[in-house]
Amino acid sequence: MLSYRIVHELPGRLRLRLPRLGAPGQGPGDLEAWMEALPGVLGVQAVRASRSLIVEFDPLTTHREAVLQRLGDYREPEPDETFDTGEESESELAPLAVSVLTLALLPLLPPPLKLGLTALKVGPTLARGLDTLVNAGVKVEVLDALAIGLSAARGEVYAATVTGLLLELGAYLERRTVRQSDRLLQRLLRPDPAPAWVERDGRLIRIPSSEVCVGDLVAVGAGEQIPIDGRVIEGLALVDQSAITGEHTPVRKEPFRRALGGSVVIEGRLRIEATEVGADTTAARVSRFIREALAKRSVSQREAERLADQRVNLTLGTAAAVYALTRDPRRVQSVFLVDYACALKLGTPIGIKSGMARAAEYGVLMRGGDAIERLAEVDTIVFDKTGTLTHSELMVTDVEVLKPKAGCSERDLLALVASIEEHASHPIANAVVQAARDRDLPHVSHGEIEYLVAHGVSAQLASGRLVIGSRHYLQSHEGFDFSPFDERIERLQSEGKTLLYVANERGPVGLIALRDTLRAETPATLARLRRLGIERLVMISGDRRAMAEALGSELGFDAIHAEVVPEDKAALVQQLQAEGARVAFVGDGVNDGPALTVADVGIAMPRGADIARATADILLMDDRLDAVADAREIAAKTMGLIRTNFRAAVGLNTAILAGAVSGRLPPLGSAVLHNGTTLGVLLNALKGVQLER
After folding, report:
1. Is the pTM of this model over 0.85?
2. Which of 480, 495, 517 is the last residue of a domain?
3. Which intervals hold domain P-type ATPase A (predicted)?
4. Up-side HSE of residue 407: CA atoms within 13 Å toward CB?
5. DSSP sequence for 615-639
6. Which tens digit of pLDDT belongs to each residue from 654-692?
7. Domain count, the chain
8. Where in the sequence is the domain holding 267, given as residue range(s)?
9. Residue 500 counted as domain residue
10. Is residue 409 situated within a structural domain?
């Protein structure tokens, strides 16, 4: 537990003293991210030098006790959990302080001491330039050393010191900007180890979330964070999932609904059965996904680095030509201080990180810069219908009693089937149980249940044995004949509905029809994708052709492929690619894995199977189709921002170089303008993009 002391307190603001904040390995970045994750916290600043933490929060939504509790729950990260943000240290500020002190002392010293002090000050820069030249070749450090070395060699002690100060200030500001870009993602990179209240031996005990086991019952109250992924067993609550899914509107959680670790209960109370704990939770998977993404260097990053290295040689060659023509050392110094490399090399990765962070705010995880680049270039998107264009959850649409004279009503039939299916966990069973619950139907007592995997279930009732399942199971295995009802069956199937067949010892009893429903946002999302430059929209469905074509035409798809078997999805994607299309595939099933892999960009829906999520380039954390359009817009605008910054960096530095070559810019002017240009480009990249929704 992290010890602290309250130093000063105002409404909505706490200043605390933390003795361990200055300890080795205990940097402020991780603690700041931990505190910022608390809903209602507006800002956090940790100052290592004074070992203090300043927390600003909204007193209308967050109590000071919640802030202090959050701080008390903090634990230092394990070595493999840390994220290198390049935290600011006193050593970074030391060169700036020394340069300022040197400038203050120079007027007071005699000439020999001025030269000696200047030599001591520029010595590290010269040594760094020589080391870079020997070990890495001609890089920006070599140019800096040449510029400052020329001034010192000519006895221009003020120019050498001021130039060094400007270069150090520019480098410091660049590091601060890079750190800020890393902070955008830091909160996503570390699973939130909130403590858990677990039911053990008939009582509640508070334990670290790492000690929760699968099957444990966890109690979560208002203001508390859900520490594991699980299934709600009891209770009703409003939950904020924005930290995980990007969905800013709180969602209602009730029995049988899924709860995500890292989300916060706004009001109400829940009992949750843990299904994924530790490294298997959604928050931990997000952390691993982002780490992998940051480890990948995109094509744009590699190209920017190559061009930046070329520009160093250009600067060096220009300086040589200027000296050969003018013999003017000051012009040469000015040229040496024009450096393309920083803006080009840093602007692209900062832009990529900003794009990834902005996408995460909208519930979209990008697997690195390559995914952003390829999605920005996509001109064709292929949608697998079920679970993407439609909701992945089924709903009961029809309950048909085949022999009404037998005395069984539709309500009786649904209550009976739901009472048996509530012991199963597949989507059809869940839909039937939910339909009965929505209608407030009573539970029907029954005997032992027998399962036949992937076929059906049977149970013993007071009136005899009841069998539920597929038509194949009931006809081929149980001997029930549903052919007299083919007309009704075909009518329901022609509407794209899935049928559950019910029979008892006296023959067929009824049918329950289910269907996945079209997402409300589907038409608007498809229209928005076209506005974002998508030329072709393609739908793949396993439904009968007539139904698939009716839906596809209604939604305005350019191509509709019906009655597609799972193994043919990847072949369809490859066929489009062979025609020259750059294809994104959106899917969620186990059988979507090959298509997600062969597509230029694979996009997996949040309820997708593990194999689909493992093979995808982009993961949607929020179950909404318009996140696909969000991802496309963010990718396109991020790449546009990177190109704009690239042109600005090249154009402005070229103008500065021209001024240096012509002699219009002195060395100090070159240093000021170059560093200002670099910082402007980096800040623009850090700002990121905004969505127009």
Report:
1. no
2. 517
3. 193-289
4. 1
5. H-SEEE-SS-THHHHHHHHHHHHHH
6. 999 999 999 999 988 888 898 888 888 888 988 888 887
7. 3
8. 196-280
9. yes
10. yes
